[in-house]
Design goal:
Elements lengths: L4 E3 L2 E3 L4 H12 L5 E6 L1 H9 L1 H9 L2 E4 L2 H11 L8 H15 L2 E6 L2 H14 L4 E5 L8 H11 L3 E5 L4 H13 L3 E4 L3 H6 L7 H5 L3 H8 L4 H4 L1 H14 L2
Parallel strand pairs: 3-4, 3-8, 5-6, 5-7, 7-8
Antiparallel strand pairs: 1-2
Helix pairs in contact: 1-5, 2-3, 4-13
Length: 242
Amino acid sequence: MKSAVNILGVPFSSLSFDETIALIRDWMGGSEPRQIVTANPEIVMLARRDPDFLKLLQQADLVTPDGIGIVYAAKILEKASVDRVTGIDILPFLFETANQSKWPVYLLGASPESNRRAIENLSRLYPNALFKGRDGFFSDQEIPSILEEIRSFTPRLLLVGLGLGKQEKFIARYLKQLHVPVSIGVGGCIDIYAGTVRRAPLVWRKLQLEWLYRLLKQPSRWRRQLVLPHFAWIVIRKRLRL
């Protein structure tokens, strides 16, 4: 594998988008449980505040640049050109792989209604794949039964949408117990496949303004977005060695 690009202590993959898809597809057919993190500046900033979370990212099998801020930071800090590899963009390729191979896929997260609708929609789009899941609202006491349900379903792909940080920690904690070849934290992707949240139109994505579209649609996100200028300032200071 190509060497990683270090962004503020987080080792980002330098694989192209197509190389990333090929690698994950290969992992889905294997037996070794692997964790993939699609990391944006918010995740990097969380890692700066949480040493345990930083260690989690450093031990993940693959960390992809999810966010234009990471792509720019790679150019500024490492003079490296990396592809933006987002969770929502890689999922159709992984679902198609599951469809062709008739593999199970488990979705953990979102509301009960969104989870159900996402499974219904995905089952129509990829009729040969097997989809199952449950919502992300559960107590610690329910976790053993959830783990058992996932294990008994034997998915090749586990998608966890519990929110930034929480989903990555859940995967890391139970990765070895679940024996799922590929586990990915997917944030709000389950809601998008459910149709309850709309992804930014293509023109916004091409302009690298998907973050702004989400902010306009969900103004409550503004507190989370405050880390973006902080991230940019840290990158610039590091580049200038201030």
